[in-house]
Every structure is written in structure tokens, then in C-alpha cells.
Write a structure and sequence with these properties.
Helix content of chain B: 55-70%
CATH topology of chain A: ABC transporter involved in vitamin B12 uptake, BtuC
Number of domains of chain B: 1
Helix content of chain A: over 70%
Oligomer: heterodimer
Radius of gyration of chain B: 25 Å
Strand content of chain B: under 5%
Number of strands of chain B: 2
Shape of chain B: globular
Structural class of chain B: mainly alpha
Mean pLDDT of chain A: 85
CATH architecture of chain B: Orthogonal Bundle
CATH architecture of chain A: Orthogonal Bundle
Strand order of the largest sheet of chain B: 1-2
Number of helices of chain A: 16
Largest interface: A-B, 54 and 52 residues
Order of helices and strands of chain A: HHHHEHHHHHHHEHHHHH
Shape of chain A: globular
CATH class of chain A: Mainly Alpha
Mean pLDDT of chain B: 86
Low-confidence stretches of chain B: 1-5
Amino acid sequence: MILYWIQKAIAFAAFIALAAMGELLTEKSGGLNLGTPGTMCVGAAAGFIAAFRYCSAVAEPSVIMVLLVTLLAAFAASALMGLIYSFFTVTMRVNQNVVGLVLTIFGCGLAEFLSIFFIKSETGNVRCDFANTVFTARIPFLSEKLGVVSDLLFSYGFMLYFTIALAIVLTVVFNKTRVGLNLRAVGESPSTADAAGINVTLYKYVAACVGSGITGLAGVYCVMEFKSGAWATADLVTIQAFGWLSVALVIFSFWKPLNLLWGSLIFGIFYWAYLYLPQLLNVKLSTDLTQMLPYIITIVVLIIVSFRKKKENLGPASLGVTYFREER
Amino acid sequence: MTVRNNGRDPFVHLTKRAPVSALAGLLIRAGAFVFAVLLCAIVVWIMIGVDPITFLKTMFTGSFGIQKLENAKNFTSFWRIFTSSYFWTTFKTGCKLLLLAVALAPAFKMKFWNIGAEGQFLAGAISATYIMFNYPGLNPVVLLILMLTVSLIAGAIWGIVPALFKAKWGTNETLFTLMMNYIAIKIVDFFFNKWRGTKSALGIINIDSEAGWLRSLWKGSESAWFRNEDLIFMVTVLIIAVLMYYYLRLTKHGYEIAVVGDSQNTARYAGISVRKVIIRTMALSGALCGLCGFLCVSSQGHTVNSNLAGGYGFTAIIVAWLSRFNTFTMVGVSLLIVALENGSALMSNTYSDLGFSVAFGKIIVGVMLLFVIGCEFFINYKVVFRARKTQKEAVEA
């Protein structure tokens, strides 16, 4: 049973980590994007609509095209959200928290409206089974022949491995490449970066757009695998909550992509605790109160982080601050 | 690195602008609002096929319309029609949003990002409901006072806990308050599921005895027009909004909040105890959110669920920020937002077969807010284009 618990935790952790990675990328450039829940909803809606429309329009949908259509739609739609975000915070210099919150309201409304409009179903309860099978397809040999190892490590769709790969890529980019160092410089001290000749505006725009795009991929990943390819507009509330969790996870991970992986796994384990913990300990726990655990753990971690103020554990120095060149 | 502009001035640059007059500021914002609404009207026209005039008319009816006004013969019948109109609903819901925004104003003025209004609201609501559910036999006045007290305390606790850690160790308050929301939601879910037992929903509490309802105060006496739960709710909220205006503008506490918000170092230098101000302000902010929870339980739905705040805890943040912490401006902004929502609700009732869903309300609100906050840019900054070369420069070149 512990095996099932960990399996479920990993499946949950993967898309939360992916969403958090997008937010982390944005935050590295100094932008605190509280629009993440909205972006995730928009990505989920756009990706699902694209897959659903494609599968019902074509008699024999091909695997490649489904992937392409779904992921592209999700990425593009949510990158647009990132573009709006950076236009308002970078060019128009509006307070980041306010723009983020507005985008969350806007994004959730947009996702709901679009799905009802394009899917033409009043309750919005539809399925896209073909896309679900594509997203949950397992690696042929590894997922069957290795016993426990197969169940534990290889019983998931390809997005999990994409997430892990992305975490490694981001770590390398942040620490080893010029682009990554420039990006961090922008996040730490935009005026210094500006003086050094780095195009601050460009970095902030690209980071927010790509970051939001990744967050959107996490949204569609959540629908296709976690929700087994079923769409209900009521689920948007859940996706929104996941979005907030991923914002919290970025702080949880001390702004390091690899930490996101195990951080989200801890989240996942506590998220499912209400299902397995009572059986395991053979006690009766209230489901609702056990569901509080991931949030309480987050608060505890936040407090511990603030106790020991190590420099490398803090976020980018200019996080949440609007940069105006002529104001020094 | 190459120098791209060859030593010339950039083509366009920004400068800070001297504060514009209040009237000009209002006109710019109103223009942005009108523009946003027109844009939405055109989008609706293209996507759904409802022409802009009908759209605007329906939006207005759904938000400020009074149905069947011509049936009003005397004051009593007029009042009955009036209190069940769209107009009345918009004001009632607007007051809920307003109270949350007023509650958040001091925290935000202090630059304390309290995004936990939902949690503070729910903490107040659930503790008031707890008393109402478990002690319906008490004297109505005692019961209501008890409910009020516990909801104020619960809301304040939900605000003080993050404030304590922020004041002492600088713990990130944005996430702390956000997580406190979910803890409150789960507590509400816990009691909701416990109290409903095997029923599918909790339903209205004390529906027969009306214990813990605001109207239990005048139960048995003849009904007069002013004995109206909604009216008392609205008047209370408006009084608090006025008091908050003076608290922030004219009292020593309000001044301390402003100083701490602008610069904590200045505050320390001036001998203000930053910790004390943070904790005191968040206690006030949380308590007012808790009060809103109490009012919603005792005078509005007479029941509780985890969606009682309905996202207004987040919307209130935007209201507070847009109004620059001026509680009188907040009245207008919160009415406007609720009006857009209610207007879209009527639109979706009328045109749901064409594909208009109530979610469009969120889009309109979102677009409107983006335009209005976007126009702050033109209020604060001036866009300066590169001037033509003067003659002297031309000769030198």
C-alpha cells in the first residue's frame, strides 16, 4: 500500500513541479507572477479544447498530431498570459501582485468561458480518451519487466520524465550558461545588469512568457493524466488550488529546480495522506483535517526558512520590485 | 556589448509625471473603463452575436435594474419590489466586497501583502456558525453578541499568526496568509460534513427557531421597513468604511501605518515599534474580515460552506489597491465590479443557448481591471518622444 501511496504521490508531484518550474523561471527574472493559477487554467483549457476538437474532427487521430496540437495550444495560450503579465509589469510598471491576481481572475474566467464555448456542453463534462491514452502511454520494456522498480519508477506517462529532464536543463542553464547568469543578474539587481549592457526588458519578457508556457503545459498535463482526460469546468477550482500550491512550492524549494522535484514529492505524499494514513496506522482520522497537512507543512517550512536566513536560500533580491531605469 | 543608439537619445523614453489633478485622473480611469466595456461588447457581438446595444442594456438591467417598478402602489409595495430588485442585490453583494476591501486597506497601506482575506472571513464565519449551531437556546441578544465576539477573535487570530512571524522573523506573509486560507477552508469543510450528517447539504441553519439570525432581534414585533437584515448589513458596512477612512487619515495609528508602509527604517528612527504596528494592524484587518463572515452568516445566507467568500477575498485586494486605500473610492469600485458580475449573470441567463456562460463575467471584470490598472501608467508617467534636432546640433553634425 505504501507503494500505491508513493505512486500516487509521484503522479501528483510531477505536474505541480512542472507548474512550479514555470513560476521559478519567471521569479528568477525578478517577476513574482501570482497569475500562475489562472495561467494553469488557461493552459489546461486550451490544450484540452485543441485535443478534443482535433480528435472529434479527424477520423483516425495520429499520436504525433495529438501531442503537437495539445502541447502547442497549451503552451501558446499560456505564454500569451505571460506576455500580458510582462507587458503590464515590465512596460507599464504596474504592481506585480495586483496584475497577477487580476490575471488569475481573468484566466479562470477565460478558461471556463472558452471550454463552454468550444465544447458546447452546458455542464462541460466531456472526455478525450485518445489523448488520455497518449499521455499515459508507458515505456514498453521498463514498465513491465522490472517488478517493483517498474511500478515505482516507470508506471507514468512521458510528461514525468519531461519534467525531470527540464529540471536538470534549467539547473544547468541557471548555473553554467551565460544566458542563465544574465537572467539571474536581472533578477538580483536589474540596474547593475542594465549597466553591464544586459537587455533587462527582453530577459524579463522572455522569462515570463516561457515560464507561463511551462505552467500551462502543467495545466494540460494535470487534465490529461491526473484527471484521466476528463474535462469538467468544476475542476478548474481544483486546478486553481494546484496553481497556488505550485507558487508556494517555489519558496519551499529555495528557488532551485532540482529541489522542486523532491519538494513536490513531499507535497504529494502529504496530499494523499488522507487516503492512506488512516489505513496504515489503523486509526480513524477526519478526511478534511488530514487534507490540511500539505498546507501546514508549507507553513512550517516557510517559518524554518525564515529562521535560518542563509543568503543562498533566499529568492532573487529584486523579486516583486518593478524596475524603472530612471529611478535610482 | 554594442551601443545601439550611437550616442543619440533613445527614440522614446519615460519620465515620472507630476501628480495629475483628481478630475483628470478620474476622467482617464473612467475612459479606460468605458473602453474596456465597449471592447467586451464588441467581442460578445462577434463571438456570440448579441449586438452591443442589447448587451449594454441587459448588463445594466442585471446590475441596476428594478423589475416591475410600475406595480408599486404605496411605500410598502415599493419597498417590497425595491428590496428584491437587481439594484438591491448589487448593493448588498457590493457591500460584502466593500467590507473585505476596507478590512484589507490598513494591511496593504502598511505594505503587508495579506492575501488571506478568504481565510480570515471563513474563520469568522465558521466560529459564528459554531455558536449558532450549538447554542440556539440562548437569549437572541446574548447569542448574537457571543457570535460577533468569537468571529472577531477568530478573524483576528487568522491575521495575527502570520503577522507575528512576519514581525519577528520576516516570514513571507504572502504565502503564509495564502496557506491559512486553505486551513480555514478545510476546517469549514470538516464542520460542514460533520453537521450535515447524511444529508447532501447543510441547508439553512435554525430555519424554524431563527436563532442567531439578525432578524431574531425583532421577532414577534410588527414588521417595519427598516427592520431588514440586508439594510442593517449595508448600513453597518458603510459606517465601518467611513470610520476606516478617518482611522487611516486622521489618527496616530493611521499615520504609523503609513510610515511603516513607506519605510520601516524611517519608522524605527522615529521611534515607532514596527512589530507592534504590524501585529496590531493585522489583528484589525483580520477581525474586520471575521466581522464580514459573521454578518454574512447572521444576516445573509444563515448557513456556511467553504465557498462562502466566493473569491471576494482576492478581488478585495484589487479593490483596495485600485482605490489607493481610500475607502470612499472603494465603494464605487466594489459596486462596479459586482455590477459587472451581476450584469453578466443576467446575460448568461438570457443567452445561455447562444453560448454565453456566467464565466464571461470574470473575463469582463478581468479586462476592465487590466485596462484601469494599465491606465495608471499614463497617470504616473509621461512618454517623451525624441525631440527633433535643434539647429545647433544639426550644424555640429
